[in-house]
UniProtKB/TrEMBL annotation, chain A:
Main subcellular localisation: membrane
Biological classification of the source: Bacteria, Pseudomonadati, Pseudomonadota, Gammaproteobacteria, Pseudomonadales
Protein known as: Succinate dehydrogenase cytochrome b556 subunit
Record field: transmembrane: 30-50, 71-91, 111-129
Gene3D superfamilies, A to Z: Fumarate reductase/succinate dehydrogenase, transmembrane subunit (1.20.1300.10)
The encoding gene: sdhC
Protein family per UniProt: Belongs to the cytochrome b560 family.
Bilayer topology: Multi-pass membrane protein
SUPFAM superfamilies: Fumarate reductase respiratory complex transmembrane subunits (SSF81343)
Cofactors named for this entry: heme
Organism (species): Halopseudomonas salina
Assembly and binders: Part of an enzyme complex containing four subunits: a flavoprotein, an iron-sulfur protein, plus two membrane-anchoring proteins, SdhC and SdhD. The complex can form homotrimers.
Function: Membrane-anchoring subunit of succinate dehydrogenase (SDH).
Top-level taxon of origin: Bacteria
TrEMBL record, chain B:
Gene: sdhD
Membrane topology term: Multi-pass membrane protein
InterPro entries: SQR/QFR_C/D, Succ_DH_anchor, SuccDH_FuR_B_TM-su
Domain of life: Bacteria
The protein's annotated pathway: Carbohydrate metabolism; tricarboxylic acid cycle
Protein name (Swiss-Prot/TrEMBL): Succinate dehydrogenase hydrophobic membrane anchor subunit
UniProt-listed CDD domains: SQR_TypeC_SdhD (cd03494)
Amino acid sequence: MSVNIAVNSKRPVNLDLRTIKLPVTAWTSIAHRISGIIMFIAIAFMLWLLDVSLDSESGFEQAQSILQHPLAKLVTWGVLSALLYHLIAGVRHLVMDAGVGEGLESGKRGSQVVIVISVIVIVLLGVWIW
Amino acid sequence: MVTNVTNLSRSGLYDWMAQRVSAVVLALYTLFLLGYLVFNPGLGYEEWRGLFSQNWMRIFSLLTLVALSAHAWVGMWTISTDYLTPMALGKWATTVRFLFQAVCGLAMFVFFVWGVQILWGI
């Protein structure tokens, strides 16, 4: 029961995230959570857009013209960036669940790979939107 | 008090599993729909409506809505239990966390019903 020894030991434990220097794995983890919250809020926007676009011919055109607005393009880029980052970081979780990339060094590499792939995909997404 | 009474399945292991299975469904739906939009640049209303009128697409979309509901709940629950703690909020933490979870649950239920109305209103 090595876990219990660690829990019961008298060593001081600091779990206050604001005072810890965070490694790259922590940043990708926090970004995964923030992107999740962004999407949760964005569900309303996406459902509304789907509703309008499927309602009628004029609704479809209305949805199209809304998406042409510069601000809407920026929001769409932001929401889809969150979605794709969340997806890519999520795939890394599934890979780690399979027992790959769980170590200290391989974990850091995994996080770096997630960042590199995400940046490429998000830039391509921007090219597609504009 | 029993602090994990609010989680989805009363079991961390089932929640973990539900999050993974729903994640795969959500990833497939995301890639399908984004791919569809990327490869149909001049998409028109009839084609768009036609896609969502297909029975398999309704099933796929409803499955995604169910997966989204479970996935979003597990995710928001995890975040709320990690950050809305007595360390961050003091003695009102449990009340604040419970209210936050209630708002998330209610919002997700509204999204689910709205989504069903959209899918079956076509």
